[in-house]
Design brief:
CATH topology of the largest domain: Rossmann fold
Number of strands: 8
Strand content: 5-15%
Number of domains: 2
CATH class of the largest domain: Alpha Beta
Largest sheet: 6 strands, parallel
Shape: globular
Helix content: 25-40%
Oligomer: single chain
Number of helices: 6
Order of helices and strands: EEHHEHEEHEHEHE
Strand order of the largest sheet: 5-4-3-6-7-8
Distance between the termini: 30 Å
Structural class: alpha/beta
CATH superfamily of the largest domain: NAD(P)-binding Rossmann-like Domain
């Protein structure tokens, strides 16, 4: 992390460039002298990660690989496979990453609802069926087959997705976190995965990284 006190040691520094998309990796210059430029290419990378996770669970790839290992011809057991074009996706966090994800998923025919703190100017967005504010997030959760967290780190998002939100999710829905690991309590997620309503979780980030060996997320059957 680039610390705020380092700016005083670099009086000739005029600009700081970082490939990171999240603003929590670089502290802002207290004097305002140095401008920071953040990476903008992550959206196209992260949206492919999200799509691959969704297809993994929709098409039951994990089960298929397990069947292959034991030479089981389980063709009749895959009638529960789902197609993205018949599903609804709730994207929580509609910054550049969330918008890029919506663009790709919309092309697959998925219905997109986005959650954004400030919805001004986003009415009629071309890649979302609807854009709603955070105070309406809970009422949207029971209708979503996939819930994607694409939130920045920091105090404003710490624990923002609570046990109450997990319990409000549609039974069998999948949760994905490709933002920051602080926004959802992992203890609550483990309970939701073991007891419902969540059927699966695709996690790109964790509260502590590397994920501790003792974390129950390692052995959650649908992780």
């Amino acid at each position: 992390m680039f610390k705020s006190e380092w700016y005083a040691d670099a009086p000739k520094l005029k600009a700081l460039f970082t490939p990171a998309a999240g603003h929590d990796w670089v502290a802002e210059d207290p004097s305002g002298r140095v401008r920071t430029y953040y990476g903008t290419f992550h959206g196209r990378i992260m949206r492919e990660s999200l799509l691959s996770l969704m297809l993994h669970f929709n098409r039951q790839i994990g089960r298929s690989l397990a069947d292959q290992q034991v030479r089981v011809w389980g063709r009749t057991g895959y009638s529960g496979c789902a197609a993205l074009f018949s599903q609804r996706v709730l994207i929580i966090g509609f910054g550049s990453l969330g918008r890029s994800m919506a663009e790709l998923l919309k092309a697959f025919g998925a219905g997109i609802t986005a959650v954004k703190r400030d919805t001004g100017g986003f009415e009629g967005h071309p890649h979302a069926n609807r854009v709603v504010s955070f105070d309406r997030m809970e009422e949207e959760l029971p209708h979503a087959d996939h819930v994607a967290l694409v939130l920045p780190g920091g105090a404003a998002t710490d624990g923002i997705f609570t046990e109450r939100h997990l319990n409000a999710m549609k039974p069998g829905a999948c949760l994905f976190n490709l933002g920051r690991g602080n926004c959802c309590r992992e203890e609550d997620l483990v309970i939701a995965l073991r007891n419902g309503p969540s059927a699966c979780a695709g996690l790109d980030v964790f509260a502590e990284e590397p994920l501790p060996p003792a974390s129950p997320l390692w052995i959650c059957p649908t992780y």
